Amino acid sequence: MEKKIAVLPGDGIGPEVVAAAIRVLKAVGKRFKHDFEIAYAAIGGAAIDQFNTPLPEETIEICKQSDAILLGAVGGPKWDHNPPELRPEKGLLQIRKTFDLFANLRPVKSFPSLLESSPLKKEVADNVDLLIVRELTGGIYFGEKKRTEDGASDLCIYSRKEIERIVDNAFELAKLRRGKLCSVDKANVLETSRLWREIVDEKKAQYPEVEVEHNLVDSVAMKLITNPSHYDVIVTDNMFGDILSDEASVITGSLGVLPSASIRGDSFGLYEPVHGSAPEIAGLGIANPAATILSVAMMLQYSFGMKEEAAEIERAVNAVFEDGYFTRDLATDKEKALTTDEWTDKVIAEIDTSFVSD
Ligand code: NAD
Ligand code: IPM
Ligand code: MN
User: Binding residues for NAD(+), per the UniProt record (predicted)?
Assistant: First the structure.
């Protein structure tokens, strides 16, 4: 069955890592005999420049007609002083909201071959396999924003329903994994966090096989670095999830390897790396495409039910790391670092080789 994918490259390194991921997708299509129909559309700064809006109607239409969305990254200094409605990031927030993609899954797994690249001690970074379930369409990101004469405010607001659905999602995912759920909040200060904690406690009875702990976000920020293998599933609000996921990338060695899926409970989803547009390395051809390539694997698995194909991408990425090939962000010897395209070629060769030997 042919699957339609809307591809939104965005800004900075977005187009570079998306191009790499599409090459890998095509290799997988060839190997497993799938046709993927790809429709490109504009988002972020690129869309502002072309259409004077960060999320054009045409892009929304293309996404509506697709089975899934692949997104690179948005943002950059060129648009940093634009008014709020004309910021690239607004396009990203709008697309998440438009498609009600309330659950952002951000897996963090240590690759044995990358342990040298992590600033953490090997024994700390080893054996980490956690999943951050970040609420994505509510909280302080979407509450009313105001500027007054002598100040500014951002409202943090969550409805019961918004919390219930993300918490249910996290419990379900914990059931499928090691059965441990850590709910992260700031219940010692914030009312939204107190409601969040109450709801997690109410839901516990429905999931007796899941072991639940509550933890305050400041302390989790510390424990995530001192004892990351303690965690299985972490469920948290929009803002805390954003911050903790970049922090967790340190465990793996680079932000350039963390993928994500933004879903809503059916097969539709938006897939994007956790990282941003990295303007300082844009155009140099040195960005790590692994996060976007692994986001494609998440797309194949979650949106298309192609488990074997997804596993093949993960296997290939892992094999290339095992062979000692790295982009600049991960290379301990920078002289030997591969470019984005060279590293992607290795992944594709890995996929093709296994095709021949099958
Ligand atoms: P960033 O994630 O773009 O970069 C943080 C650091 O990680 C930089 O040193 C960067 O060079 C490095 N890095 C990120 N991805 C990399 C990759 N694939 N390979 C190698 N190195 C990589 O965060 P930032 O610098 O704070 O933000 C830059 C812009 O990106 C801002 O405009 C921000 O709003 C935007 N942003 C967008 C998204 C998104 O589109 N999902 C996410 C985060 C930030
Ligand atoms: C992310 C990014 C976005 C977020 C920004 C660019 C709006 O940091 O996807 O993690 O905060 O959600
Ligand atoms: Mn972020």
Answer: 76-89
| Ligand 1 site-directed mutation target among 87, 255, 260, 284, most atoms within 8 Å of CB | 255
Establish whether 218 is a catalytic residue. Answer: yes
Ligand 1: which of 78, 94, 141, 277 to mutate, judged by most atoms within 8 Å of the beta carbon?
277
ipTM at complex level: 0.99
Question: Does 333 participate in catalysis according to the annotation?
Answer: no
- The whole-angstrom separation of Cα 124 and Cα 230 is 10
Q: For the chain, how many residues are written? A: 358
Binding residue positions for substrate:
96, 106, 134, 218
pLDDT one-digit tens code per residue, 63-84: 999 999 999 999 999 999 999 9
User: Taking the complete model, does pTM exceed 0.95, yes or no?
Assistant: yes
- Is 141 catalytic? The answer is yes
- Catalytically annotated residue among 3, 90, 109, 186: 186
Q: 212 phi and psi, to 5 degrees?
A: -115, 140
Do 128 and 108 form a contact (C-beta atoms < 8 A)?
yes
Residue 358 structure tokens: 């099958």
Q: Is the CB of 92 under 6 A from ligand 1?
A: yes
Is the minimum distance from the CB of 275 to ligand 1 under 6 angstroms?
yes
Q: Which domains does the chain have, with CATH numbers?
A: 1-105+258-358 (3.40.718.10), 119-252 (3.40.718.10)
pLDDT digits (tens, 9 = 90+) for 291-318: 999 999 999 999 999 999 999 999 999 9
Q: Whose CA is nearest to atom 4 of ligand 1?
A: 278
Q: Say if residues 326 and 287 touch (Cβ distance below 8 Å).
A: no
